[in-house]
Amino acid sequence: MPAVANAGFVTYELRGPVAHIGLNRPEKRNAISDAFVEAIAEVVARAESEARAAVIYGHGGHFCAGLDLAEHVTKSAIEGVRGSRRWHEVFSKIEFGAIPFVSALHGAVVGGGLELAASTHIRVADRTAFFALPEGQRGIFVGGGGSVRVARLLGTARMMDMMLTGRVLSAEEGERCSLVQYLVEPGTAREKAHELAEIAASNAEISNYAIIHALPRIQDMSKEDGLLVESFVSAITATSPEAEKRLRDFLEKRVARLRAPDQT
Ligand code: 1HE
């Protein structure tokens, strides 16, 4: 039986090498309060210590309605800054931690919910998912890393439109705009996310670490700096004992060959 824990706002379950983190405040559409952020931080740390990949999903009808607006209404500017910086820390632990995270999205993926999803490495949406950044309508601004991460996924022009006009993107539009890498039938996002997380979990740990840490950073570098860093990361991963074993497994025909998707 998998270990299941409930840290208040989240459920936690280990399924083989994959930790499942469930946002669990469905009566408030998984809106993220300060205490909720801390619960996420706790289970993310736990997942990193005992799993090789993780899935984040939402209990109830929606993935996440973003920032808890009721709590935010009473905050001063400096409390807002501190709160936003804490979201940055926790979401950066997801983006730049030790293991790959896959988010399984359905229903509302809005505001801070989209920012959370954007900090994961792979996003799987079912066809009920919709995406919005209603910060303009609420009189606020993104504060969970959206101007950095969501803008990089969508491009500034699309994000500008969503923020200024409150435009809601359907799941299909989200896929077309590169917000999500997978689009699946309703109710199947978590299983698909698990399947992908299991595959990622079977990679060499050093490769996953290099992919998670080097790939996004290289995008922020100049072309020449990026190419140099790539060579070093490539050489370090390729000379690990695990790489040697995996390369031999391929050369000595012990592992399956790649095939076109329709031939598998
Ligand atoms: C909330 C929140 C919330 C729901 N904070 N309480 N996010 C938003 O602007 C999205 C606001 N939420 C919605 O548009 C809708 O609630 C949903 C589309 C997500 C779901 O609709 P629905 O009809 O299923 O639920 P509901 O009736 O609107 O909400 C159920 C309850 O959840 C209700 O509380 P109740 O006490 O009346 O039962 C809602 O008030 C509550 N609820 N969403 C607080 N977000 C780090 S900066 C990030 C900035 C942002 O994230 S801005 C975007 C905020």
Automatic annotation (TrEMBL):
Keyword Membrane: no
Keywords (A to Z) from UniProt: Lyase
Signal peptide as annotated in the record: none
InterPro entries cross-referenced by the UniProt entry: ClpP/crotonase-like_dom_sf, Enoyl-CoA_hydra/iso, Enoyl-CoA_hydra_C
NCBIfam families, A to Z: PRK08150.1
Record family assignment: Belongs to the enoyl-CoA hydratase/isomerase family.
Name of the protein described by the UniProt record: Crotonase/enoyl-CoA hydratase family protein
Species annotation: Chelativorans composti
